[in-house]
């Protein structure tokens, strides 16, 4: 089955939602079918999250677009993503960052290994607890967290450049997407209700309480 009609229709729906030409063009460059399990190939352009193994999900395309829009990645940006998952969002960020580098951290080694096979050359995939950030490559112009944290992890705020932007979901049941800007002071702007898998780790939720499970209905 050709995915082309569904792909074009999805990109058009993102434009109608007010997503910029720049972000839509980056998403046009990265083929989502390359990042979903083979058996779900036909669903690649459905605007919904899909399971990728280890109880985790590739985010819905509209959510990827909204997060990229809020993050406002500029060419040459040094970007950190927490929660590599399939590597799809990192690949989109890499196109927006141009000759910048995207460092992405995933807690599951298997997902990180799979993502490494797919992402463009300016994406560096690491395994570990992303709630600690990535001090070796800090500071970052932009930080994106694709799993929901209890609060802004202090290492991530410390590793964000002055003038930098961070986008992250916060909360366990009722979650909200936030844009955090680090200027003379830190501002935190809410951008609507979301449902992400949880961030587990030192500055995340505790695995012993949640069992490390993903929410089935997550972005
Ligand atoms: N950006 C991904 C994509 O395009 O496929 C979607 C990511 S998925 C919604 C969230 C990911 O965050 C999961 O793969 C999960 O394993 C990961 N995660 C949760 N806690 C983490 C942590 N402390 N450090 C790194 N990754 C974490």
Describe this structure in words.
There is one protein chain. The strands form two sheets. A seven-stranded mixed sheet has the order 5-4-3-6-7-8-9. Strands 1-2 form a two-stranded antiparallel sheet. Helix 2 (about 20-30) packs across helix 4 (about 90-95). It starts with a helix and ends in a 9-residue tail after the last helix. It has helices spanning about 5-15, 20-30, 60-70, 90-95, 110-120, 155-160, 205-210; strands spanning about 50-55, 55-60, 80, 100-105, 125, 140-145, 160-170, 175-180, 185-195. The longest helix has 13 residues, at about 5-15. It is α/β, with parallel strands linked by helices. The chain has one domain (about 5-215): Rossmann fold (3-Layer(aba) Sandwich). It is built from seven helices and nine strands, in the order ααββαβαβαββαβββα. The mean pLDDT is about 95. Bound molecules: S-adenosylmethionine. S-adenosylmethionine binds near residues 57, 58, 59, 88 and 111.
Structural class: alpha/beta
Query: What is the fourth-level CATH superfamily?
Result: Vaccinia Virus protein VP39
H/E element order: HHEEHEHEHEEHEEEH
The structural domain count equals 1
Q: Beta fraction of the residues?
A: 25-35%
Mean pLDDT: 95
Assign a percent range to the helix content: 25-40%
């Amino acid at each position: 089955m050709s995915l082309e009609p569904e792909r074009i229709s999805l990109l058009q729906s993102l434009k109608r939602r007010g997503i910029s030409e720049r972000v839509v063009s980056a998403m046009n460059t990265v083929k989502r079918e390359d990042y979903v399990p083979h058996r779900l190939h036909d669903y690649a352009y459905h605007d919904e999250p899909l399971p990728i193994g280890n109880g985790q999900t590739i985010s819905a395309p509209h959510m990827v677009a909204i997060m990229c829009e809020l993050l406002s990645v500029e060419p040459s940006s040094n970007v950190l993503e927490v929660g590599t998952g399939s590597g799809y969002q990192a690949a989109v960020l890499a196109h927006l960052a141009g000759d910048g580098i995207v460092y992405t951290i995933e807690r599951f080694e298997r997902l990180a290994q799979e993502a490494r096979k797919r992402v463009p050359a300016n994406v560096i995939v690491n395994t570990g607890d992303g709630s600690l950030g990535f001090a070796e490559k800090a500071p970052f112009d932009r930080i994106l967290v694709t799993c929901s944290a209890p609060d802004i992890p202090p290492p991530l705020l410390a590793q964000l450049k002055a003038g930098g932007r961070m986008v992250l979901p916060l909360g366990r049941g009722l979650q909200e997407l936030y844009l955090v800007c680090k200027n003379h002071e830190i501002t935190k702007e809410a951008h609507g209700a979301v449902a992400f898998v949880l961030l587990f780790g030192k500055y995340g939720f505790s695995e012993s309480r949640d069992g490390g499970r993903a929410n089935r209905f997550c972005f």
